[in-house]
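Milestone M4 deliverable, item 7.
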Amino acid sequence: MRFSAPRSPSTSPERGQFRGRSSYGLFTDSESAPSDHEVESDLESVESSTSSDSRLQLSDLRIRRNVQKPSVSRSRTDAEMRYIEDTIAAIRLRTRHQDPYEKWEQETRKDAFRTAKKTLTESQTRWHDEREKARAADLERLAALHAQQRAEVQGYLQQLRQQQQNEEKRLREDWKARDQQLWKRIESGISLEQDKARKKLEEEQRIRQEAEMRRRLEEEKRRMEEEKRKKEEEEAQRQREEKARREAEEKQKQEEEEKARLERQKQAIQRNEIGLSTANEDWRNYRAMLHRLKTETMKVVKENKQLKKEWGELRRQITPKIGQLTNDDQSIRRITMQVIQVFKPSDAPRPPVIYHALLSSLAKAIISQAETEVTAEVRTAEPLSKVTVNLLENLDGFPPVFFARLVQRVGSWAIPVILPGTDHDGRPWKDNAEAMKVMGYRKGATGEETETTAEYCSRIAGIMRVYFHILKFRPMKGPLWAMFQTPRYWVWFSRMVGGQHRALLESPAAAYLIHTALDVMGSYAMDIWGLQWIKILSLVYQGATEGVTTAHGERLLIGGASAEGKSARVRVQLEIERIMANVHPATIAAQQPTLFS
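Output delivered:
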């Protein structure tokens, strides 16, 4: 491919004039011939310089020099030497001369080459870009065409596969149906053969079993006859031995019962002599007295209209007087005398049935006052207990009636004892509701549900506070009835703590009542029993703090784990610490080491 380079707009330089030279290549006389040294230096400069701007090459110069240089054997003339020198000078001048036109021509050619190269590069770039875009468009077109063709081929293949799958499914179902029919015929044939074989085996087995059964029946019959004979002999021997054993046990039992009866009789005589009884005996006696009071006294009064009317009028005179009680001696004496006048009028004595009915009403009124007033304000227990002590001294038959009513309202806590499973007559409780009623539980504030544990504990604690105050007072006319004497305080604590009954001590009511008893006469008991009372307090303190170990190895805390029991247990602990704080240290040191030492 040919490119034409435009010429430069600059004007072409003019060629210089060459130096004049002899027509014959000989120097003039005025010119001196160059020396050999100059000729040699000219040759070296010709050889070392570049001849790109000259059209005469170094090889031509050397050839010319070799042609013009005479041989060594031949002598040179002066004209020849001048010719040679002139030629060398001309060559040197030509090689060193730079022609402006040629230089301009060379630069123009270079500019044209660069311009052509740039134009070629740009044209090639555009050509390559166009070719690349065309190739990309062809590739996209081919890719779309291939995608379309691939989709068509895949759709066709999918149709073929679906047809193949449908055909395979149909053939598989046909094969499966054929296989099922074949196996069904095979199993039917096998079943027929098995039935035949089973029937044959069953028949053979039946024959063997019948023969075996006959043999076993004969052997069983012989064995049973033998066992029956041996059993009859053993039974006869056993009956003889059992009869002898029963006779011996009966005799021993009779002897033990007689011995126990005599021991109980002896203990009963001794207890009667000193006025003591067991907790269970106290419970049965006062439950029986309460039963007689309801059936023999109150029932008779309520069934007779005249007696009921008279009893009602007198009862309404007693109840307000108990409610008007205040904590001053004059009020206590006045109310005591008014109540005594109701029971012992000056004109004529009361009929016995009315008298005993009024005793029951009086006891009920005092206990009701303790339930309401003492539960709300503990200080009201003292005047109420003083009136009660005066009445116990002056009213015949009132102490057992009052204690029977006390047992009715607080249950077995007045004794105290674990509630037995039967009543005084041996009749078991009908249900849990009856047992709770016997223990002193009443209806709650709403009158529908049973009162809560806190309500129950507070109520019976108020009643028992009056009882403990009664035990604390010294009567004026001599000792009171046995259940209201001061030693009953010791008996109550010994039965409560000494028995270590889990059902008794772990009840929250136990902690409430122990705290009430200690609050009323804990310090007073210290003055009476001294070191023995400290031992009781030590045992109670241990049960209220770290717990005591029962005879069965069980850990027992007074009041149990309920919230009411915990709070009452803390009050017991604080009350014992208050009592012991007032005891002289020498008194504590005189006894065996306890929790207080």
